[in-house]
Amino acid sequence: MKIMNILDTIIAQKKIEVEERKLKTPVFLLEQSVYFKRDILSLKKFLADENRTGIIAEFKRKSPSKGWINADADAAIVTKAYADNGASGLSVLTDEQFFGGSFADLEKARINEVPVLRKDFMIDEYQLTEAKSIGADVILLIAANLTIHQVKQLARAAKNLGLEVLLEIHNEEELAHICDEVDIVGVNNRNLKTFEVSIQTSIDLSAKIPADKFKISESGISEINTILELKRHGFKGFLIGENFMKSTSPQIAFASFVKQLKG
């Protein structure tokens, strides 16, 4: 599989999966979930809390570019350690085929009293209801695979469900996808065509993101100095996953990183 075609391949598969799940579990059944009426935790509020780290700690088993990162990690153990050590949010991959994720992983993360982001490729309003039904507080919209109209439509539907919206952008052109319904703008430092990573992407886009939006930086963050530099450019959050998950004990890796950050 060519790297530049990975996103298209994932979206094509996602369309098939969503249609299958709609038939298997209709919306009215999703709405009967024990999680559906719970109060949503605000990622914006947690990112604004100076007593926390600003880190959105990610639970990710594998990626299309690197294969398996940590196949056997226990989502309950890892995410509890993330939360206990000051994570401002938890990001959990729910895509199974390409990222080794599952709904079960997110539900295990839900035991923690910090906001949980469903990290997946959202293309249909059904997935938003699904996200709420498994305990998510925040959903991800990726500008690279959605039109401006689709972002607004999905973001509005998410807000109607009480969910917060994280919009991921990769370049200046995608700034046009930012709309009123978006709560948080995430700059992904990974080039989706080459998979090369550069923190400069976040720095270059920082001043162009509307001031009323929370800004987070995603991908390629593994050093304390990188976080300090991004903070100087107005970033409130830092989505980090692989740096911890590649360790045999992600929970220990995270605790050590936070200790350095606070020190």
Q: What features would you describe in this structure?
A:
It is a single chain. This protein is α/β, with parallel strands linked by helices and 263 residues long. It is 38% helix and 16% strand. Strands 1-4-5-6-7-8-9-10 form an eight-stranded parallel β-barrel, surrounded by five helices. Strands 2-3 form a two-stranded antiparallel ribbon. A hairpin with a 3-residue loop joins β2 and β3. The chain is globular and about 50 Å long.
Spell out the key features of this protein.
263 residues; alpha/beta; two-stranded antiparallel ribbon; 10 strands
Sequence-ordered SSE layout with sheet pairings:
Blueprint: H1 6-24, H2 27-30, H3 43-48, E1 55-59, E2 62-63, E3 67-68, H4 75-84, E4 89-93, H5 103-109, E5 116-119, H6 125-133, E6 138-142, H7 148-160, E7 164-169, E8 184-188, H8 200-206, E9 214-218, H9 224-232, E10 237-240, H10 242-245, H11 250-262
Parallel strand pairs: 1-4, 1-10, 4-5, 5-6, 6-7, 7-8, 8-9, 9-10
Antiparallel strand pairs: 2-3
